[in-house]
Design goal:
two-stranded parallel ribbon, TIM Barrel, 6-stranded parallel β-sheet, alpha/beta, 9 helices, about 35% helix
Length: about 300
Amino acid sequence: MGTAEARRNRHRTGEVIAALMIVAVAGCSGPSGAPTSATGTTPSASGSTTGAAPTTEPPTTTPAVTPSTGPSPTTPVPSPPPAAPPAPPGSPGSPVTIPDPWRGIDVARLPTALPVVALTFDAGASDTGVRPILDILARYDVAATFFVTGAFARAYPDAVRAITAAGHPIGNHSDTHPDFTVTTTAEIQAQLATAERSIVALTGRPAAPLFRFPYGARTALDIQVVNAAGYVPFRWTVDTLGWKGTSGGVDAATVLRRVLDTAQPGQIVLMHVGANPTDGTTLDADALPRVIEELSARGYRFVDLLEMLR
């Protein structure tokens, strides 16, 4: 024991002896001051103790749960639970818990033997095809999933609201569509958070856990970062290439053929809502009625990705 500690103990012993002498002289009269705790410190009105400054834990990404009644001065405070995976800065709510089978993968085909197909539409450029696509989906009573960038949501809020009003889930497609393979973890987290806020502001619903990598570009670490933020990344079984437009040597027949040639249980079809910037075509919207009719004739039904995650 150090010299300072020994002095403090001798001082406290002297105080106790003096107090006993006062009690002996005063008889049975009660204490004149506030009671002291077992540690020799005086509780404050809030139940905390004064004296030595309390030690504090470094802040974590998961706020500690505050009990309705604080522990007594003699009750040891339990250690905080392990921190949950960090949420992107500013993301609404806590990260969604990703089931183990969906972790560490960029889903290219749904894990099912059922004859189901997921039609998915990326939205990052123009909104030219949104209205005709929604009308076609409604006419055939078909479900689909849309992946929207934050920039698209801010530029075309009515289109995003229309997608939600039609009952189709909207996933996060980053904020400004960068290549994640050359983007830092912090930048990825910021991309996810900013896009999420922009989407939720219009739909009132989280985009998580649905996510698609810009350009489909990713590394194993990128997938881990996205999972930690509460998202399951979805790739595609087939890209229709409708985004290339007629100027890129593609037509509606090409779109249809590519979908039918790769049709299989759990197929994920990648299409786009935007018009080709050179020729103005929206080939995915043009081919969509035939795609639905031909797949339906083969016995397939259509699902959205959120349904498959439930």
